[in-house]
Structure to design on (309 residues):
């Protein structure tokens, strides 16, 4: 029987704390050095921002869920939120030489946590200021209950491994339950983007999509990911539908959509170590079914490319 995947799209705060404690203890010295280095960078002079004339201070705030925070990627700088010093927000801040940088991303966050606390974590939008110039936000996967979808698909795959039992279960009587969730999440994302503009009216806002989790050609890899063969292309299609919604919401607000999917094709969870950018289970590289450091590097590059257009 193929190993069960460990979907971690919503990583509970206490669960993640246990999982990363070992990493944190092993890298305490490095983390201290990183903290000092970050503080020094924040005190530096305004940076030259791509696509602008002259010197302009970059005051950057990053918002989002675990696909933005980087759970399990060494080195972890925040155990509660599964935040890595190598996540795409940190890479963007370093590349731009940001004058100020606040990473409010947190594993397990959904759109409600933009304006409400996430257990002990303050609302993410509280990090915004009137003079913020750049905001990235990657949110919505937990509103869909991505972890719950994957868990259900894994269970059903044990019954019908060569069919598409998960697709069938979510489309009974001609319904499209996931499509309905995407539509509902659209309104929530729109409301969050509106509030960002209220709080930071001069900020450029980048809405970051989700990378390719499964093969773009729809092929199955049951020895690695224990889904039914027919559910691989269905999950791919649902993710594309979700990313299309994010792009539409960004366009409606005249914000920029960052396509993390296209550059990641061929680097999905089915690929071998060293090629994949999504880990199929918890590894030393990242939390299960989340981007590793290479995946975050790709997303950072995609975001930075939009700033030079």
């Amino acid at each position: 029987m193929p190993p069960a995947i460990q979907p971690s799209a919503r990583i509970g705060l206490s669960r993640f704390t246990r999982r990363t404690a070992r990493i944190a203890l092993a890298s305490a010295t490095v983390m201290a050095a990183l903290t000092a280095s970050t503080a020094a960078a924040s005190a530096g002079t305004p940076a030259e921002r791509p696509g602008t004339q002259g010197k302009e201070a970059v005051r950057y705030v990053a918002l989002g869920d675990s696909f933005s925070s980087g759970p399990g990627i060494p080195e972890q700088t925040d155990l509660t939120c599964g935040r890595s010093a190598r996540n795409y927000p940190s890479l963007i801040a370093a590349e731009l030489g940001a004058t100020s940088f606040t990473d409010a991303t947190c594993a397990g966050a959904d759109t409600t946590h933009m304006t409400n606390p996430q257990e002990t974590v303050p609302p993410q939008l509280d990090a915004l200021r009137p003079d913020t110039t750049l905001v990235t936000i990657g949110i919505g996967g937990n509103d869909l209950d991505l972890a719950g979808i994957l868990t259900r698909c894994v269970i059903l795959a044990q019954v019908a491994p060569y069919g598409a039992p998960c697709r069938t279960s979510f489309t009974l009587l001609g319904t499209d339950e996931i499509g309905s969730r995407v539509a509902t999440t659209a309104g929530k994302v729109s409301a969050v983007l509106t509030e960002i503009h209220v709080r930071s009216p001069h900020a450029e806002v980048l809405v970051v999509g989700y990378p390719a989790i499964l093969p773009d050609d729809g092929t199955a890899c049951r020895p690695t990911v224990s889904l039914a063969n027919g559910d691989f292309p269905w999950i791919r299609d649902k993710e594309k539908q979700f990313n299309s919604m994010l792009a539409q919401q960004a366009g409606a607000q005249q914000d920029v959509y960052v396509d993390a999917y296209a550059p990641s094709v061929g680097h999905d969870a089915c690929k071998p170590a060293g090629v994949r950018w999504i880990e199929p289970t918890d590894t030393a590289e990242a939390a299960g079914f989340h981007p590793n450091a290479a995946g975050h590097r790709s997303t950072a590059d995609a975001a930075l490319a939009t700033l030079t257009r």
In short: Residues 13-306 form a domain with the Rossmann fold fold (CATH 3.40.50.1110).
